[in-house]
Amino acid sequence: xxxxxxxxxxxxDRGALALELYVARSLPAKSPDALREMLPSHLAYQxxxxxxxxxxFAGPVSDESGENLFGEGMIIYRADSLEEAxxxxxxxxxxxxxxxxxxxxxxxxxxxxxxLTVGLSGQTVGFR
Length: 128
What we know:
34% of the residues lie in helices and 35% in strands. By secondary structure, the chain is of the alpha+beta class.
């Protein structure tokens, strides 16, 4: 496999988006009660990151059956480097307190699409 920077350049050269984001897989390290206790400060931190333009997407991940939550989450950061993304994750109250641990990866977004609908008079937003 080529080095990351080489692959990113090749992706751009072939016309792919090559948008680099950073994905944290946030894993439970303490009890469900500890997770619930930390949730308000975690969500406030996420809201601050979103307002600062540093949070692309975040939310819980189901277990393999797709039927249950078990405390895992996925957080996708906008950052200038892997180190900056790691620092953002480390500052999350869930991670800082040891309630969750995380694994960080670079993610190169090359393909896909999404649709956004904004209803002005009804002040609605739809995403698909």
